[in-house]
Amino acid sequence: MIDFEFTPIMKMAKEFTHNYARDVMRPIARKYDEEEHVEPTEFIQKTHEMFRSLGFSFSTANASGDKEEKSEHKEKHERPKMEMNLLGAIAIEEIAWGCPGLTLRIPGPGLGGAAIMAAGTPEQKKRFMKILNGPKPSYGAMALTEPGFGSDASAVATTAVKDGDYYIINGTKIFVTGGDMADLYVVWATLGKDLGRAGIKAFVIEKGTPGLKMARLEHKLGIRASDTAEVVLEDCRVHKDNLLGGEKKEEKGFKGAMQTFDATRPMVAAMAIGIARSAYDYVYEDFVVKNGLEINYGKPLHKRGYIETVLEDMEAKISAARLLTWKAAWMLDHSLPNLKEASMAKAKAGTVVDEITQKAIELYGPEGYSRRHLLEKWMRDAKVYDVFEGTGQIQRLVVARAILDYTRKELK
Q1: Phi then psi dihedrals of residue 207, to 5 deg
Q2: Alpha carbons 250 and 112: distance in angstroms, whole number
Q3: What band does 60 get if pLDDT is binned at 50, 70 and 90?
Q4: Among 33, 175, 176, 373, which is most buried by a count of CB atoms within 10 Å?
């Protein structure tokens, strides 16, 4: 049975992260939205030191976890001692409530670390996670998208040519989240187009490797506190030990690396829910609390006011998206396949955050469109959550395949 009753640790994490988001992140959210590409150095260092001292990480690096412990709990139908993915979803919602752009600036394994944990060998996990969880602020980036494709990862054109114990990698990667501050990148490349999806591999490339360079930073609509980079690889020599999963035939390759998103999509959904809650809380405080009103959930629909009806609708949508997200994270913690559920959560949260932030601005009229409120920022931030890590259309396609038991070839 699914159990979403908060453990003492979950309650503590929720309260702590909310307070941190309110007291530290929200006051500087506007500053780093307007000063795009200015690194929030003090925030990064402070956040790194604080969460490191608490032994807390905003990574999905626990997605693989201890298989023996998980299988034991699965057989006994017991709740694991520490549901790290569910805990992460709860905490990340609160942090994103403060500012989603700054959330993406928090040091940690990031998408790159999630890929390493999903598809890396034990030696690779130990070696690279030591870098990402080290004493200085570190970050792991995922370099997948290219100028020629977005959500279709099988269309990778970046090449990796074997040269003795090395691979020579050439290509261009765009929209790399945290590409400017990454200490290592997980770069996807193909060993040959004739090999199809089987030829697509992921390589871990450390910052400073000759041939790896950041070409430019994007100017974006939202999440402007987080830098998004274009990364170019020109005859970049990478040792075979950095091929994620190794060179053995049984290595996970493309399929293994894709499992990364089963772990990260619930976290992205949780961020979207945090933004939606920001808008909801703002409207509720302004229209209900300040005016001494009360929402009566038992009142017949025809007797409710417009604001009351809108807020009830917002709350229902947020709750639906949150439950989908928690279920996807919970399944991961219990070693259950969650491909469909992760995509459902991502698709629902991406739609909900768009609807709620836009409706909040509508309630304020022209004033909501101004910069006197953070509402317009949240609306701009919201849009990317229906775009990155697989668009809403792609998520619905994944869900449809899972429900109908269709292959990728049968349903495109």
Answers
A1: -55, 140
A2: 21
A3: very low
A4: 176
Q: Quick check: helix, strand or coil at residue 228?
A: strand
Instruction: Tell which CATH architecture fits domain 8-108.
Output: Orthogonal Bundle (1.10)
Nearest residue to 6 via CA among 83, 61, 69, 71: 83
pLDDT score, position 2: 73
From the candidate CATH numbers 2.40.110.10, 2.170.130.10, 2.40.30.20, 1.10.3720.10, the one assigned to the domain spanning 140-253: 2.40.110.10
What is the token pair recorded at 9? Answer: 């640790």
Write the CA distances from 394 to 225, 273, 343, 344, integer angstroms: 27, 19, 9, 11
pLDDT tens digit string along 207-251? 999 999 999 999 999 999 999 999 999 999 999 999 999 987 555
The two structure tokens encoding residue 362: 């509508």
Q: How far apart are CA 18 and CA 96, in angstroms?
A: 9
DSSP SS3 for 334 = coil
Closest alpha carbon to 158 in 166, 150, 148: 148
Q: Token pair of 106, please?
A: 């928090």
- And the tokens for 88? 């992460």
Q: Which of 5, 376, 389, 410 is catalytic?
A: 389
Element (H, E) at 364: helix 339-364
Nearest-CA neighbor of 166 among 244, 268, 92, 236?
236
The answer to whether residue 389 is catalytic is yes
For 76, the 3-state DSSP assignment is helix
**What is the distance between the alpha carbons of residues 384 and 101, in angstroms, rounded to a whole number?**
11
CA 112 to chain CA centroid, Å, is 11
Domains of the chain by residue range = 8-108, 140-253, 256-404
Query: Residue 160: enclosing H or E segment and its boundaries?
Result: strand 159-163
**Fold of the CATH domain 256-404:** Butyryl-CoA Dehydrogenase, subunit A; domain 3 (1.20.140)
Taking the C-alpha atoms of residue 411 and residue 366, their distance in angstroms, rounded to an integer, is 44
**What band does 50 get if pLDDT is binned at 50, 70 and 90?**
confident
